[in-house]
Amino acid sequence: MIEIICNDRLGKKVRVKCNPDDTVGDLKKLIAAQTGTKAEKIVLKKWYNIFKDNVTLADYEIHDGMSIELYYQ
C-alpha cells in the first residue's frame, strides 16, 4: 500500500491509500469518495503531465508519499 497526497490548491488536501498496480481511474474513484465530487470531473496532473485513466500508478512511477495536483473540469 502506498499513500498519495492530492492537493487542489484551493485549501483541500486529500490523502489516499492505494496499491501501485491500481490504475489512475481507480485512484480518481477513491478521491471522489473522499471529496464528494464525481470521478469524471477530476483531473490529476504532475507539473504539465495529465495522467490517463487506464495507466497504472507504477507505470507513472508514482511512489509512497508523492504529491499530485488535483484539478476539476
TrEMBL record:
Residues 2-73 form the Ubiquitin-like domain. CDD domains: Ubl_UBL5. Pfam families: ubiquitin. It comes from the Eukaryota. InterPro entries: Hub1/Ubl5, Ubiquitin-like_dom, Ubiquitin-like_domsf. The keyword Electron transport does not apply. Coiled coil: none annotated. The keyword DNA-binding does not apply. Keywords: Ubl conjugation pathway. This is Ubiquitin-like protein 5. It comes from Adineta ricciae (Rotifer).
